Amino acid sequence: MDTRGARIWADMTTKAAQDNNREIAILLDDEVVSAPSVRQPITGGDSQISGDFTMSEATDLANILQVGKLPARTQIIQESLVGPSLGQDNINRSLTSVGLAFALLLIFMVLYYMGGGVVSIIALLANLFFVIGALASYGTVLTLPGIAGIVLTLGMAVDANVIIYERIREELRLGKTLTMSVKDGFQQSYSAIIDANVTTILTALVLSYFGLGPIKGFAVVLIIGILFTLFTAVLLSRLIVEYWLSKDRGMSFASSWSQNLMTNVNIDWISLRKYGYMISGALILAGTISFFTRGFELGVDLKGGYSYNIQFAEGSNISSDMLRKELGEQFGGSPVVKAVDTKNTFNITTSYLVDDAGEDAPSRVMDKLYDGVNAISGGNIDKEAFQSTYGDGTHITSSSKVGPTIAEDIKDSSLYSAIFALLLIFLYLFIRFNKWQFSLGAVIALLHDVLATLSVFTLLHGILPFSMEVDQAFVAAILTVIGYSVNDTVIVFDRIREFLGTYTGKSKEEVFNLAINNTLSRTVITSGTTLLVVMALFLFGGASIKGFAFALIFGIFFGTYSSVFIASALVVDLTKDREFKGKETKKKKGFSRPASATK
After folding, report:
1. Distance spanning both ends of the chain, measured CA to CA
2. CATH no. for residue 523?
3. Fewest Cβ atoms closer than 10 Å to its Cβ: which of 12, 246, 350, 493?
4. Among candidates 416, 484, 73, which has minimal Cα distance to 212?
5. Residue 116 falls inside a structural domain
6. Domain check: are 472 and 524 in the same one?
């Protein structure tokens, strides 16, 4: 609407207004999107369309007017189709894993913590109720990674209760009354709980910002779960315990066999750090060599291509090698063929025609797939039934297409997620502990956990009988491992910080060993309960989520291991005794020592 455009528009609207308020059609790619009547000439270049619009319709029309004629046609760059039978099977398996995980947690917590365990189960039920209610209100689409987020939330929700109960038991062993032990146990636990959960939320926030598709849903579920975990474990549990005690009733926080379990541990962990360095170095070196020689089993969402799950009819005697050979001739290159744990089902991934932008490219790929499967099955498969997502005969149960552009976007977002998560964690720990050694030790330990998990995947893919693809779900698992690992590390660091102000006469190695031994029961219990949950997910969660759960299993193991042998060990190696002892002694005694005395 420059001067010339406004003049042309004035002539057009003048004629239209004179011709019985004739309509003027607004087109986008030769399709009429609106046809308003002209009530009066528009001579100033500014136009207004009025009518019975909803806000959504008005916004859409405004966007169309701003876009103008598009120079390119619409092209599908990512598409996914899941048949109803496969979807229902995944739902059933996921619900089974949730139920089993909850049952295992319930049994363990009650047997280990007795009355306190019952309170934690009530808090866990409330947490699950709040999470599902929030997701329903928020309108979140619950995908498989989302369900995995709920299962993982159950495992991590126990962590806060374990921290509190272990602290209460410590206070009881010091000879305090039950009421005072409960009060001090909750208060002394807040710092560790907040630090641990904030670092996990930071990771989930990064994942929700950079993640795409179902991974964003996983992050949203995890964030909501952590927030309600803080509410139920810290507030709800305390209200229940204090209400019960106010009625002059007793409550036990340990059974007879767990009363003094892991209370007198005296292991010199720090002296073993050189062995930890050697083991970790050897694993990562082996993974690096394997990466350059074998590479990773990249999922279709990271490399682009077409992926199909094909279920063969009952009685079919089909093998992966047979499919790989026949389809290799059809596609002009060997596709990736893997058996799925669903009966008679195989996953086939190919990059055939992935760069072809033609509208008929997907149908041409489908034709080649049908020809290959039909040939290997004896030539009696109906093509229409084959392409259907349900039925009893040989048919496709799910399919997906990811273009090379979106695959690159997913790679970039995954890399940015990891970098920003590590950066935020470094800054947060630096602020909380006021020493760069703690931040650097934690971040190097997290990097170790990522590299160690990646090493396992490059070393074992193709050997184990399930898919070990590096895909979006794997990225979510890695970032979850980062959040879990820093959670465990922060608990140890928090106790180290507390002991540095208490045991000022001990060396740094003695203080670190004391803190690690003191938090050992919490570490073992939390890692054990979370592993129980993830194992349930791995065993019963379905083929599409086995790789995700497997990554979590190793990630949790490495995260627990690195908290002692990498993070704490590095802090010891990066600092000198006087950097801790001098500062803490000065704070404790209230005067500044001269430099020579500090030395």
Report:
1. 79
2. 1.20.1640.10
3. 246
4. 416
5. yes
6. yes
Answer whether residue 476 is part of any domain.
Answer: yes
Each residue of 377-416: b (16+ CB within 10 Å) or e?
Answer: beeebeeeebeebebebbbbbbbbbbbeebbebbeebbee
Closest to 369 measured CA to CA, from 329, 317, 320, 338: 329
Whole-angstrom Cα distance, residue 415 to residue 409? 10
Q: What Å distances lie between residue 183 and 175, 194, 499, CA to CA?
A: 14, 17, 20
Residue 594 is assigned to a structural domain of this protein: no
pLDDT digits (tens, 9 = 90+) for 324-368: 888 888 888 778 777 776 667 787 888 887 777 777 788 888 888
Regions of the chain where pLDDT drops below 50: 582-599
Token readout for 79 is: 């598409």
Q: What is the pLDDT of residues 482-498, one digit of tens each?
A: 777 877 788 888 888 88
pLDDT at 494: 83
Which one of 372, 402, 432 terminates a domain? 402
Q: Quote the CA–CA distance of 465 and 218 in Å, as a whole number.
A: 26
Nearby residues of 583 by Cβ (< 8 Å), 6 or more positions away: none
Domain range for 7 is: 3-67
Clarify whether residues 280 and 322 are in a common domain: no
